[in-house]
Specification:
- This protein has about 375 residues and is α/β, with parallel strands linked by helices.
- The relative contact order is 0.13.
- It has 15 helices and 16 strands.
- The protein has an 8-stranded mixed β-sheet with strand order 3-4-2-1-7-8-9-10, sandwiched between helices.
- The C terminus is likely disordered.
- It has 2 domains: about 180 residues, Rossmann fold (3-Layer(aba) Sandwich), CATH 3.40.50; about 180 residues, Glycogen Phosphorylase B (Rossmann fold, 3-Layer(aba) Sandwich).
């Protein structure tokens, strides 16, 4: 069997949560005898051999409202799709909807629904008819958590064709931290700190975390880079937060060391654009308690209040500060929540479990005829 994944970007061009999910699926499926290709649009072109799957890059022509478009992608998609048994889309990306219909491919298709479109409210009104037709047309929609399925109006509209497959991680791909890195970060930050890992984007709620840090004796490390980095650093300077450390996009060995050393993971995302939270999974995998906010998404499926961590109201710096104070001072609670977080990871969020579910879905769909219509 051969699967074609279609998404706007992928490694090595970028490495976010969706890219990591695609990588885990492709690598895991390869071990089960399923070949995968990934097609994206990029300023770089050509094919990247990632060992157990290939990344094909069509030339990026233009970006509109964070959505990438490419004329050459139409031809490349059609050529790759001819050799695929199944097409796997990753939503949201409006350009993929257009290519889906224009290609006239009568093949089974899956779309992993990563997030509602939250920010582009005006453009969404024009896109809705195409979005609804696309989601009605694909064979199966995958939600990444039961929480997101229950709270997404879009997914509820197509509930009869939605399956839930939680995101999983392969911990064998995370190397053990070196003693050099552990010593370096212990000496630089100190023995006790909160950790945030992720892209610095508008929906991550880091401005709320900075407000929560004001006037405290906590230490916090922020790992990542992104569009709001400059604004966040300016806010930290304005609030005179000497206890907040921006360390940029850390290398894997640095990130593993910080995950090993941290007191707990903070995840203050305040908008539904945060559909799951891969770094929450990383925290759970490392046996760390988590502090997250209630936004009606998969973050509250990974982190269960009072069991694996604490969940507070979103956009509430005082509530976030109180939760941080609790974990900062209560050693027994912090240890218990961390142990439970690890157990929940082992039960629900391993890459093996996720890949097995996708492979089972692929095989079931491959036995059925495709559902694509012959174009517009």
């Amino acid at each position: 069997m051969r699967v074609l994944h279609f998404y706007k970007t992928y490694k090595p061009d970028s490495m976010g949560g969706v890219e990591e999910l695609i990588n885990q699926i492709c690598s895991g499926a390869a071990k089960r005898g399923i070949a995968s290709d990934v097609l994206t649009v990029s300023r770089s072109t050509g094919t990247v051999d990632l060992g157990d799957h290939l990344h094909h890059r069509a030339k990026l022509d233009i970006e509109i409202a964070s959505s990438a478009f490419s004329l050459s992608a139409f031809g490349e998609f059609k050529q790759l799709a001819r050799h695929a048994d199944l097409i796997h889309y990753h939503f949201p990306w409006p350009f993929a909807d257009i290519v889906h219909f224009a290609s006239r491919m009568n093949k089974p298709s899956v779309v992993t629904y990563h997030s509602d479109i939250v920010r582009q409210k005006t453009l969404l009104q024009f896109y809705k008819p195409l979005r609804n037709r696309f989601l009605a047309n694909v064979s199966t929609i995958v939600a990444t958590s039961p929480n997101y399925l229950e709270t997404s109006d879009v997914l509820q509209r197509f509930r009869n064709k939605v399956e839930v497959i939680p995101i999983g991680l392969d911990e064998t791909t995370y190397a053990a931290p070196t003693q050099e890195k552990l010593k370096y970060w212990s000496e630089r930050i100190g023995p006790k700190f909160f950790l945030f890992v992720g892209n610095l984007r508008y929906y991550k709620g880091l401005h709320i975390l900075l407000d929560a840090m004001q006037g405290t004796n906590f230490q916090a490390v922020i790992v990542g880079a992104g569009p709001v980095e400059r604004d966040l650093k300016a806010q930290a300077e304005r609030l005179q937060l000497s206890n907040v450390h921006f360390v940029g996009a850390a290398a894997d060995d640095d990130k593993v060391a910080l995950l090993t050393l941290c007191r707990a993971l903070t995840f203050p995302s305040h908008l539904r654009s945060e559909a799951f939270g891969i770094s929450l999974l990383e925290g759970a995998m490392f046996g760390k308690p988590m502090i997250s906010t209630e936004i009606g998404t998969g973050t509250s499926y990974v982190n269960v209040h009072g069991e694996t961590g604490l969940i507070v109201r979103h956009s509430d710096a005082a509530a976030l500060r109180e939760a941080m104070q609790t974990l900062w001072t209560d050693d027994a609670l912090t240890a218990r929540l961390g142990v439970n977080a690890r157990k929940r990871f082992e039960t629900l969020f391993t890459a093996r479990r996720m890949v097995d579910s996708y492979v089972d879905l692929y095989k079931r769909l491959a036995k059925k005829p495709g559902t694509a219509e012959p174009g517009f």
